[in-house]
Specification:
mainly alpha, rod-shaped
């Protein structure tokens, strides 16, 4: 859970920094606002990939039952 929080905080700080830089470079607020949904979707996909990777790692680390065949 803590690693997920770190990813969310990092993504939100990156979004804030991107908005500040774009505004400082002369982009309009409307241009910055239109990018926010795309960035949020990207963060959501990163979190989903991160959680699936953690789930796959848990499955790979668990000991096999006697019923399961070992594929080699």
């Amino acid at each position: 859970m803590a690693s997920r929080t770190v990813v969310v905080v990092t993504a939100l700080l990156s979004l804030a920094a991107l908005c500040v830089v774009m505004t400082a470079m002369g982009q309009t607020i409307a241009a910055v606002i239109t990018l926010i949904p795309s960035i949020v979707l990207g963060v959501q996909q990163i979190l989903q990939a991160h959680s699936q990777h953690a789930d796959a790692r848990r499955v790979a680390d668990r000991p096999m039952d006697d019923d399961e065949e070992q594929v080699a």
